[in-house]
Design brief:
TIM Barrel
């Protein structure tokens, strides 16, 4: 078995998929462990290491033989990488030799050797990712001196680990600065921030983000418009110049992201809804606005007051203190009291009884001063999207056509026709097969394919919230069991790339699955005459994990290159039970190549959205110091989130660097 086969087996094991949203069957978890060749710790301490540590000469021979095998495998691996482009023609944006050596090392099971070395007080190889062969040379030299052995005359002297570390740090720092700018003093990791739409028109908001500690601004090209992206980038440049800091601009291509399509309108109904306490007493009346401005009525959401459209001349005659009588859609007589006139053609009404109002209903005006009554008809109402709600056991059709989605058609007892919802890339349906899993909205809904026909893919819901989950438009779809031969760059990506190359320091590349995907982006950059922009490959699929070494080689040959661990989609694709160890594997691979990694998705999410963090997300953010950059998504408390993360990373910097714990003076004081 060659190094590619061994490494391929290893990454296939770590990316093995486990069902999302519920515990997987124990047999599947055991199967994953068996595939990874897991050896219990007690086996390591009984068989092998005790013999190796008690016989240093045998350990010396084992380490030397292992070193030679790794070097030979690494040489063959590098030879395969450079078949189309000689190393001399490349910019050294990564360490190809050390990456190949690390992959060769991970093609061997070295745990017995690690334990034996640790028992002798030597390096256990546990932190050798950044300098694999120099670490082996140093261990061999130390064992040789301890055993008074002459080293082979054909073997060169050991390369200094400090020299190898310095060279690796230089490459890593240069790559990191090209992607994320220079970090603030006192911390190693940079902070990337996804900009909201307001960043395009509020320079002061961007200045507050930079002042709080933002090092890199991420602009999601899947939202807003090119004109807004340009204004966002200009505001970032101005804020950085104004604060005397560097802040790079990353523009993120959406890629072939699968999403639910539009949903048709629900009933055109305006609900006037009073609040009641636990015993049914009204604590606040329902509110509705009579609107004569010509705008359509709206149901209102959250703190937005619902409106009904009426004739402007009629509403102009309505005064505060008057009454409006209506028979609502269920046929109940209701009285609305006019309490305010916020505009010339607007009247605010209250009702202490709930009512449902819709187009065509008659409103009867009863003036308080005894003037004659008059009648008006409710006009059009902008209906909100229908609620496509599913429960466990329901059928849902992912439809091939572009017709808006709709709920199940129900006669009041049995569903006559299942709910349906379109998919943004309908050709994906052709690759679904019975038994394939489908996850909707980040795993909020889990389903399995029952059959595929001319209508589309018929899904059976396997996991949803108690009482049912609502499926909305533009929500993510994941097909972890399905091989989707979709283009890595969509037409929208290619159009966005014209703006990206003119205004960004780096381009984010979504759903990178294989090395050929990187080739496609590099070709498009060449076509636009752009050869220096940095590339950030987002790893969010099992294929992306398995092919990560080749992705790095192809991407970092000519461009500053980095990797984002996109933990949201990645967790769904590989199973959340595997996320922790897979994320560590990605960090190790990146460290071996000296390319920067981004720790992304749901970092300090509750803090950013509510202003109060959870304890778990604080520890998660602290662990993110292992990466070169940490990403925050947008939310109402984004500026506060940047400040908290900046402080947290500065606190962790003296205590932790990559995989190594640092030991300042112990201080348990308050």
């Amino acid at each position: 078995m060659n190094v590619h086969q061994r490494v391929g087996k290893h990454f296939a094991a770590i990316s093995r998929m486990v069902p999302f949203g519920r515990p997987g069957p124990l047999s599947r978890v055991d199967e994953a462990r068996d595939t990874a060749d897991v050896i219990p710790p007690e086996t390591l301490t009984v068989h092998g290491p005790q013999l190796l540590s008690s016989d240093p000469l045998a350990l010396y021979d084992r380490v030397r033989d292992l070193r030679d095998a790794i070097a030979a495998d690494a040489h063959r691996t590098q030879g395969g990488w450079w078949t189309d482009e000689p190393p001399a023609a490349m910019e050294p944006w990564f360490d190809a030799a050390n990456l190949a050596a690390y992959l060769a090392l991970r093609g061997h099971d070295v745990r017995e050797v690690q334990v034996a070395l640790a028992e002798l007080g030597l390096s256990s190889l546990g932190r050798c990712e950044a300098h694999v062969l120099p670490t082996f040379d140093a261990i061999i030299a130390m064992l040789g001196r301890a055993l008074a052995l002459e080293r082979d005359s054909s073997r060169s002297s050991p390369t200094s680990i400090s020299e190898a570390s310095a060279a690796g740090r230089t490459t890593l720092q240069r790559n990191s600065s090209a992607l994320f700018g220079s970090p603030l003093a006192g911390r190693h990791a940079r902070i990337m921030v996804t900009l909201p739409a307001e960043a395009a028109d509020d320079p002061g908001y961007v200045q507050r983000l930079v002042a709080a500690g933002m090092d890199c601004a991420r602009i999601n090209c899947g939202h807003d418009t090119p004109a807004q992206w340009v204004r966002m980038a200009a505001n970032v440049r101005a804020a950085a110049a104004g604060t005397g800091r560097s802040c790079s601009v990353l523009m993120d291509l959406s890629g072939p992201r699968l999403r639910t399509g539009p949903i048709g309108p629900g009933p055109a109904v305006v609900r006037v809804h009073p609040r009641r306490n636990a015993v049914g007493d009204v604590t606040a009346p329902g509110v509705v606005i009579l609107d004569g401005t010509g705008a359509a009525g709206s149901s209102g959401r959250g703190n937005v007051i619902p409106r009904i459209s009426v004739d402007p001349a009629w509403v102009a005659d309505v005064e505060v203190g008057d009454a409006i009588v209506v028979t609502d859609l269920p046929g109940r007589r209701r009285t609305l009291s006019v309490v305010d006139a916020p505009g010339p053609l607007e009247r605010t009404c209250e009702s202490r009884a709930g009512c449902f109002l819709g187009p065509g209903l008659e409103l009867h005006h009863h003036p308080a001063d005894g003037r004659p009554t008059s009648t008006a008809t409710i006009g059009a109402v902008d209906a909100p999207p229908a609620q496509v709600r599913v429960v466990v056991g329901d059928e849902l059709i992912l439809s091939r056509d572009a017709d808006p989605g709709r709920p199940a058609v129900d006669d009041g007892s049995l569903a006559i026709e299942p709910a349906r919802i379109p998919i943004g890339i309908p050709e994906a349906i052709d690759h679904l097969r019975p038994g394939h899993r489908v996850f909707i909205d980040g795993g909020a809904v889990a389903a399995v394919v029952d059959k595929v026909d001319a209508q589309g893919a018929h899904l059976i819901i396997e996991s949803a919230k108690p009482g049912g989950s609502r499926i909305k438009a533009d929500k993510g779809l994941n097909f972890p069991d399905t091989d989707l031969p979709l283009p890595s760059l969509t037409a929208e990506d290619l159009a966005a790339l014209d703006t990206v190359v003119d205004h960004a320091d780096a381009v984010g590349y979504s759903f990178v699955r294989r090395a050929e995907d990187v080739d496609a982006l590099v070709e498009e950059l060449d076509r636009r005459g752009e050869q220096r922009i940095a590339i950030l490959a987002k790893i969010e699929t099992a294929d992306g994990v398995a092919n990560l070494p080749e992705i790095i080689v192809r991407g970092a040959r000519r461009h500053p290159f980095g990797v984002m661990i996109a933990r949201g989609d990645l967790a769904i694709e590989i199973g959340y039970e595997r996320l922790a160890d897979v994320q560590e594997e990605i960090l190790w691979i990146c460290e071996s190549a000296h390319v920067p990694a981004v720790w992304a998705t749901q970092v300090l999410e509750r803090l950013v959205h509510t202003g109060v963090p959870t304890r778990a997300e604080i520890t998660d953010a602290a662990a993110a110091e292992s990466a070169e950059c940490v990403m925050l998504n947008k939310g109402p408390f984004l500026v506060e989130g940047v400040g908290v993360l900046h402080d947290l990373l500065r606190r962790m910097a003296p205590r932790h660097h990559k995989k190594t714990d640092l030991l300042p003076v112990l201080d348990l004081g308050r």
